[in-house]
Write a structure and sequence with these properties.
alpha/beta; 8-stranded parallel sheet; 12 helices; 10 strands; about 45% helix
């Protein structure tokens, strides 16, 4: 299975109408993405507003998406509780998930050290029916899983990859040299897609791929073809866009950009709020400068 963790994979947004999930809008987006060179989809990453979804909503989304695509489905099932993570991962598998994307537990931050992570991930890996991918995103969790810990976990047969959203490509280099063979390294931020792939990552799970799937794929393809200059040119052009839809304007910015590019973005779920008028104008200018809209 792990051989298909390559290429570009968008972490899909969750469409809400009046704060309720719209499976119709989700499927409209999927049908558009099916026309692009994407290797699969992530459901319930940070950009899917995972923390605001109920378990029932999550299972309904997995089922709906699975019915309309044959592509790889990576599903965010990580919760602080080992028991809950195992239970949700196994239910997700029954509904068609291929991989469980398991975020680092983070509530008891000061306790989240090497042994704790080893215990957590080993226990989960031994009890779930699909392979797991470790998800490291210190920007949201305020915990960072150490390289040594990942190297040790990489030898577990059911822990098959890492999505690293630290924007630190030297971490990818160090891991690439030391992890178990077959363990996949996945760039979690489009800002470092180019260096991350050069340092040994096999794929990118990128918010940017929701609005610029072709540009993300071109960077991946051009690097495969060793056309470094052209790949870098596209990478550099996309950096301001990526910044706008991640750190600057967050999920609301990503959804607003989707609306401008012919997808359904809509509103984030409360308590997140829509962009204000000034932010919308700024976002439009950024997208125009990157030639994504007229």
């Amino acid at each position: 299975m792990s051989n298909n963790l390559i290429g570009i994979i968008p972490p899909l947004t969750t469409p809400f109408i009046n704060d309720e999930i719209s499976t119709d809008k989700l499927l409209e987006n999927i049908l558009k993405y099916e026309n692009h060179m994407l290797s699969g989809y992530v459901l319930f990453g940070s950009n899917g507003e995972s923390v605001y979804l109920t378990r029932e909503e999550k299972l309904k989304i997995i089922q709906t998406v699975r019915e309309h695509t044959n592509r790889t489905l990576i599903v965010g099932t990580g919760l602080d509780s080992i028991k809950e993570t195992i239970s949700l991962s196994n239910e997700a598998a029954e509904f068609g998930a291929n991989y469980a994307l398991v975020i680092t537990p983070s509530f008891f931050k000061s306790e989240m050290k090497h042994r704790t992570f080893l215990n957590y991930y080993t226990k989960v890996a031994e009890s779930v029916m699909i392979p797991i991918i470790i998800y490291n995103v210190p920007k949201f969790t305020n915990v960072n899983i150490d390289v040594e810990t990942i190297i040790e976990l990489s030898s577990h047969p059911n822990i098959i990859g890492l999505k690293d959203s630290t924007e630190n490509s030297s971490r990818i280099s160090e891991l690439n040299a030391n992890v178990h063979s077959g363990f996949k390294l996945i760039v979690g931020a489009a800002s470092v897609l180019y260096p991350g792939l050069i340092c040994g990552a096999s794929a990118g799970i990128l918010a940017l791929a929701n609005i610029a799937p072709d540009q993300c794929y071109q960077i991946y393809r051009l690097l495969k073809e060793r056309d470094f200059e052209k790949a870098l040119e596209i990478q550099n052009k996309m950096i301001p866009v990526n910044k706008a839809v991640t750190s600057k304007f967050g999920v609301a910015g990503l959804k607003a950009a989707m609306d401008l590019l012919g997808y359904f973005g809509g509103s984030p779920r409360l308590p997140l709020e829509l962009l204000n008028e000034a932010q919308q104008i700024e976002l439009k200018i950024i997208l125009k400068n990157a030639s994504l809209i007229e």
